[in-house]
Amino acid sequence: MSGIELESWDGDKLTVNRTFADLLCHHGWQTFATVWAATADAAVAKKLRTDRITLRFTLDDGGIARAFYIKRHVRSSWKEYVKPLLRLTWPILGARNEWNAILDFHKVGLPTMTPVALGESGENSFLITEALEGCTKLSEWEADQAEEANATNEKRNGLIRNVAQIARTMHGAGLHHQDFYLGHLMLSQSAPERLYVIDLGRVQKHQRLSRRWIVKDLAQLDFSAATKTSVVERLRFLREYLGRPLTRLDRRLIHRIQSKTATIARHSLKNRL
């Protein structure tokens, strides 16, 4: 599993990355109940739904404060069950799916969050990951670069290649993100062109990825990049993604991506996203 060794604690209620076992033990975090109670009042980092909240906390590690995020899931409303079923998809609830996705990403060498622990008890669950420090959302970096006259094409082209390689590896492994926007790509400030893929909560894995899911991911990326990149740059991305020059046979794929991008734009406008 790309070097990630797991341990099972608390009667299988906790699954722990062995790298962090000593740190968790040092703080007495050896049961689901202990972790759940200890993180209840941590700083809120993100809360878009009542059944899911992401909190940020630190743990002392030999005098060094290490930062982590915990995504806590509680019982979902009936709407969260019904909405996916109406779209002929299965509900993705709880922390398990994202935990598995993170492990799958590491397995195929895709840069993402470092998993620390998974907790599951009844209808409550949580996922702990180590914080990605010194990173900027690619969407925010692009916005800054648009205002800088000295932003180099070389760096932009390098990032385009990097994003294309990530997308190609992800899809080649049968994984599709479902929220593949620039805001879910984190750019390291200390290592140029080093990107991390985050928010894997809706990632799905297939034996063979259908064109439908490929188009959806690429359209989400296209939508979020539309005002920040040129048409030439987006075509360059597609060429890098396919690993070959574009041909007339690719027109259908381009049309499907553009059509899905327009659908996402209408949905975003309607729901003020």
Question: Any idea of the CATH class of the largest domain?
Answer: Mainly Alpha
Per CATH, which architecture of the largest domain?
Answer: Orthogonal Bundle
Mean pLDDT: 90
Structural classification: alpha+beta
Q: What is the CA-atom radius of gyration, in angstroms?
A: 20 Å
Shape: globular
| Biggest beta-sheet profile | 7 strands, antiparallel
Q: Ranges with pLDDT <50 over ≥5 residues?
A: none
Number of helices: 9
Percentage of residues in DSSP E strands: 15-25%
Distance between the termini: 37 Å
Q: Helix-strand pattern, N to C?
A: EEHHEEEHHEEEHHEEEEHHH
Spatial sequence of strands, sheet with the most strands: 1-2-6-7-5-4-3
What is the CATH superfamily of the largest domain? Transferase(Phosphotransferase) domain 1
Helix content estimate: 25-40%
Overall tally of structural domains: 2
Number of E-state strands: 12
CATH topology of the largest domain: Transferase(Phosphotransferase), domain 1
Structure description:
- With 273 residues, the protein is of the alpha+beta class.
- It folds into 2 domains: 6-130, Phosphorylase Kinase, domain 1, CATH 3.30.200; 135-270, Transferase(Phosphotransferase), domain 1, CATH 1.10.510.10.
- 40% of the residues lie in helices and 23% in strands.
- It contains 9 helices and 12 strands.
- It has helices at residues 21-26, 32-38, 78-86, 96-107, 138-145, 153-172, 211-225, 231-242, 251-270, and strands at 6-9, 14-17, 43-49, 52-61, 64-73, 114-121, 124-130, 135-137, 175-176, 185-188, 195-197, 204-205.
- The strands form 3 sheets. Strands 1-2-6-7-5-4-3 form a 7-stranded antiparallel sheet, covered by helices on one side. Strands 8-10-11 form a 3-stranded antiparallel sheet.
- Helix 6 (153-172) crosses helix 8 (231-242) and helix 7 (211-225) crosses helix 9.
- The longest helix has 20 residues, at 153-172.
- The chain is globular.
- The model has no long low-confidence stretch (mean pLDDT 90).
